[in-house]
Write a structure and sequence with these properties.
By secondary structure, this protein is mainly alpha-helical. About 40% of the residues lie in helices and about 10% in strands. The protein has 16 helices and 10 strands. The strands form 4 sheets. A 3-stranded antiparallel β-sheet has the order 3-2-7. Strands 4-5-6 form a 3-stranded antiparallel β-sheet, with no helix packed on it. Helix 6 runs antiparallel to helix 8 and helix 7 packs across helix 13. The termini are far apart.
């Protein structure tokens, strides 16, 4: 929801428009709201709520003028606990816990501090406003680039030791494909970028009728039998809110960690909702952020607004960068102003390279005043690069525009960006993806195979010539190590079979011996030969 800007009292027409706007967003009493009203209240005070006073609504313009000069609520009001939409929280009695710690009054208690906090994006704007931002190309690009790059090359399963477990690895890959884990994690990264949090529900076949979803989901064969894992369901955070969390003892594991969540009236244990947050907030701010994190859209909003303002200013300047000035005797048109306007209108209508404007040789002069356009491209490019700096994305990834200039290259920036994406994978995906892997193992085999793990594939891909040269170098190293006795041929073959970049990836570590087959065939031929 946009921040309130203090300005001079508007006109009556503007005040009427603002009145209709504020009436549309003003919350109604809970008893008067229809069941289908799912509008999500924001953390900041509802727009125009502190402007309304008891009295005649027709006197709204005077109230608005007084309210624009009234003190702004302190910043601590903006950090009060998050209130979910109607219907998200159920009717069960909540466990005892604190509401939230109060934010300090100074130095943000003043009106200037509140305006600065809103402008800089340090106040939770609410999920409807973040959903509105997700419609703009600037926010979508910076979020989707990270989400798609983090799941582009995906993961690889591998077995530790010398045991051949290719069959089990093939079953895991098929089950991950059935559960659509790759696309689900991409959506979790998008939710994290748009809203600051994504929640993934583990569907084990339980519903509101059967019950049991409020109980912990223990990853043990006794409590997670085969065939339990049905699906993985992404949930946007607007439909969720925590039920209980500890605020008394910082040494406990549930300190500011929700143990249960409400999901549209259903109580779900936190072990059944995998939480994806890459930019968590301090404990004092978690209740205000619905126990999520700071979204990338909220962080980038000041930079995107600067970019939009710069882009529009450059467009307006290009649209009217030149002005035609006519120096004439204005006293001659004092009695006939329409004559001067008609002459100017005729000139503008036929103004082109083939047009001619007739001037009085003695009393008139025509000048062309043009604004300098040099440097506008650099200013606009810098404003665009500032957006990329928030998401830590290279310009070629964000816009598809290659760098310009002498010896310009984006390879170094792309390598740094890939390192950043790999850190994002390890920080956000590693823990929940390991949980999903163990759930799939229990659902398939009834046990967790600790010898099978996964790794994220490298995003940086070499060209074919470089890969061939690297394989040749590795083969020479293996040959020298075998001759010197450092490794055995079997160990070298096993490493080659597990090398993702090798053309022999996936072959059996045990070599096939043709002499055994040929020997058996020859003996069989000797046996059949006398009979023939």
């Amino acid at each position: 929801m946009p921040a309130i800007r203090h300005a001079s009292p508007p006109s009556v027409k503007a005040a009427s428009k603002l009145m209709a706007f504020f009436k549309h967003f003003s919350p109604r009493p809970r008893s008067q709201r229809p069941v289908s009203d799912r509008r999500e209240p924001t953390v900041a005070p509802p727009l125009g709520q502190h402007m309304r006073q008891a009295g005649n609504p027709a006197d709204f313009s005077k109230q608005l003028a007084n309210a624009l000069h009234s003190p702004i609520p302190p910043l601590s009001d903006a950090f009060r606990p998050y209130h979910p939409p109607a219907g998200v929280r159920g009717t069960a009695a909540a466990l005892a816990h604190d509401s939230a710690a109060t934010a300090p009054q100074a130095p943000f208690g003043s009106a200037a501090g509140y305006r600065t906090a809103v402008a800089e994006g340090v106040v939770f704007p609410g999920y409807p406003h973040l959903a509105d931002l997700a419609q703009r190309a600037e926010y979508r690009h910076m979020v989707e680039v990270i989400a798609t790059e983090a799941t582009r090359e995906w993961i690889t399963f591998r077995a530790r030791g010398t045991t051949n477990k290719q069959d089990r690895i093939a079953q895991l890959e098929a089950e991950f494909t059935r559960l659509n884990v790759r696309d689900v994690l991409r959506r979790m990264a998008e939710y994290d970028g748009y809203y600051g949090m994504g929640l993934l529900y583990v569907d084990t076949g339980l519903d509101q009728t059967t019950g049991g979803r409020e109980n912990p989901l223990l990853l043990k064969p006794q409590t997670f039998p085969k065939g339990t894992l049905k699906a993985l369901v992404p949930v946007e955070p607007v439909w969720t809110t925590p039920e209980s969390y500890g605020t008394a003892d910082p040494l406990r594991t549930d300190f500011y960690q929700p143990t249960h969540w409400w999901v549209q009236g259903s109580l779900i244990h936190s072990s059944r909702l995998l939480r994806f947050v890459s930019r968590d907030v301090p404990d004092l701010l978690k209740p205000a952020y619905n126990f999520g994190g700071v979204s990338l859209s909220q962080m980038a909003q000041p930079y995107v607004e600067n970019w939009l303002r710069t882009r529009q200013s450059v467009s307006d300047l290009l649209n009217a960068f030149s002005i035609v000035a006519l120096s004439t005797d204005m006293a001659a048109y004092a009695q006939d102003p329409e004559g001067l306007l008609s002459r100017v209108e005729a000139f503008n209508r036929f103004r082109s390279n083939r047009g001619t404007f007739v001037l009085d040789k003695e009393r008139e002069k025509l000048d062309l005043l043009a604004a300098p356009l040099s440097g506008l491209d650099k200013l606009q490019a810098q404003a665009q690069e500032q957006m990329c700096s928030v998401a830590q994305e290279p310009l070629v990834k964000f816009t598809g525009i290659t760098p310009s200039g002498l010896n310009a290259s984006a390879q170094g920036e792309i390598r740094v960006f890939y390192d950043r994406i790999h850190a994002f994978q390890e920080n956000v995906f590693r823990t929940p993806l390991t949980t999903i892997l163990h759930m799939v193992m229990l659902s398939l085999w009834g046990e967790v195979d600790a010898d099978i793990t996964f790794s994220f594939r490298s995003l940086w891909q070499m060209d074919e010539a470089t890969q061939v040269e690297m394989q040749k170098t590795r083969a020479d190293i293996d040959a020298r190590n075998i001759r010197s006795g450092i490794v055995t041929p079997h160990e070298a073959r096993t490493r080659t079979a597990q090398d993702l970049h090798s053309p022999y990836d996936g072959i059996s570590p045990t070599p096939h011996r043709p002499d055994q087959t040929s020997g058996s065939l020859s003996s069989a031929s000797k046996t059949v030969s006398p009979a023939s």
